[in-house]
Amino acid sequence: MELTGHWAICGALRNSYSIINLTLNRFTDKRCSKRSAGMAYELDWTKPKKSLSLTIQILNSLIYFMPWSLKIPLVQKDLPSHSKMNPQFTFGAPDELYSPILPGLPDDVAKHCLALVPRTNFPAMGAVCKQWRSFIQSKEFISVRKQAGRLEEWLYVLTGDADRMGSRWEVLVLGCLKNEQFLLPPMPGPVKAGFGIIVLHGKLFIIAGYLVYEGAGVVSADVYQYDSCLNRWSTLAKMNVARYDFACAEVDGKVYAVGGYGADGECLSSAEVYDPDKNEWTLVESLRCPRWGCFACGFEGKLYVMGGRSSFTIGNSRVVDVYNPEHHSWCEMKKGCSMVTAHAVLGMRLFCMEWKNQRKLSIFNSVDNSWNTVDVPVTGNSSIGFRFGILDGKLLLFSLEEKSDYQTLLYDPEAKPGSEWQTSAIKPSGLCLFSVTIKA
């Protein structure tokens, strides 16, 4: 089909994402069937003619609403029949060698178009074709959305049932979902506890743990991944060492798991790292001594392990073990927190709450390795603690007191002195066990 006279998109095309969204909705409404909780669709969109027709309609919609200052003429040029150019950069490449993401558009422009669609439509987009689904699952998709200024931040909260024998993941987003909540599909496998939770490239990792109904005697090495863009779970490579109550964190695009309890109840000093590009776990240098009930975070390319207990200390340890992946070695810092009940990382700072004093925030600044404390403006029983969440650059404190009238506290570290503390309407439906923020 002749494309002369049509217009392509330049950098500011982000302003027209809503038009793509409307076009996509019109086609999915006609040809898709609901598959699960309104989050995934099946779409028969395989014929090239239909694909090209859809692309032209999207372009026409974009052209109509786009300011003239953002339009650049796109003319299809005649290419030599024996062109030696890379097929990926050639409009005239044979179909068997190259299939464009959006027919009639260069792939970089097509990717930018897809990246402008609102996050709630990602599952439907992933059902259009394998090429779209592959792009949406990739790290590049997150990168393109970031460059376009279209990243959306959602808060995922693991809430416990009333009997505390089960749990479920729900999404809390203020404004984007009209303050409503929706549930994730159930986690695969048996119900577990003591597992690790990590976020990497828009995906949620559930690592190891022990089987709740079998007790701590049955320890798992299984790892599951939730794709927040496609709303689906998948299984990843198993760990080398089954463990629970261990520390885990992301450092430079890789996932580290350290210490914990093993399958026989023994305390572990072993550590391993997961490479998402290879889907592979590899053992690395072990801790100098076993450590369990601890947590970890990543700063400036290093892994910090703190809290919990260590076989080198009596009671709870304040020593911080620091792993340098570049040198494959551990060192230690003498000052840290002990008996930590909640923690969260915001920028270059770590926020902790200790069991002995749950009315103060302990804040670690990784720039100068310093600690300071901030009072939490609540009164009453000091044994009632909190779970932390991060949203929009602010720290959320979800109370563990099961009362319907409690309010979520919000701490803004960048606010003017005296106005750091506020309340938030964001609130999970049940007892908050853990929360993570995923940008996509």
Spell out the key features of this protein.
single chain, 440 residues, mainly beta, Neuraminidase, 3 domains, 5-stranded antiparallel β-sheet, 15% helix, disordered N terminus, Kelch-typ_b-propeller, Kelch_1
Description:
Keywords: Kelch repeat, Repeat. Pfam families: F-box, Kelch_1. This is F-box domain-containing protein. It comes from Protea cynaroides. The structure is a single chain. The longest helix has 18 residues. The protein is 15% helix and 37% strand. It is built from 6 helices and 31 strands. It is globular and about 65 Å long. It starts with 6 loop residues before the first strand and ends with a strand. 32% of the residues are buried. It folds into 3 domains: 141 residues, no CATH class; 130 residues, no CATH class; 152 residues, Kelch-type beta propeller (Neuraminidase, 6 Propeller). Strands 8, 9, 10, 11 and 12 form a 5-stranded antiparallel beta sheet that branches. A 4-stranded antiparallel beta sheet has the order 7-6-5-31, with no helix packed on it. Helix 1 packs antiparallel against helix 2. The protein is mainly beta and 440 residues long.
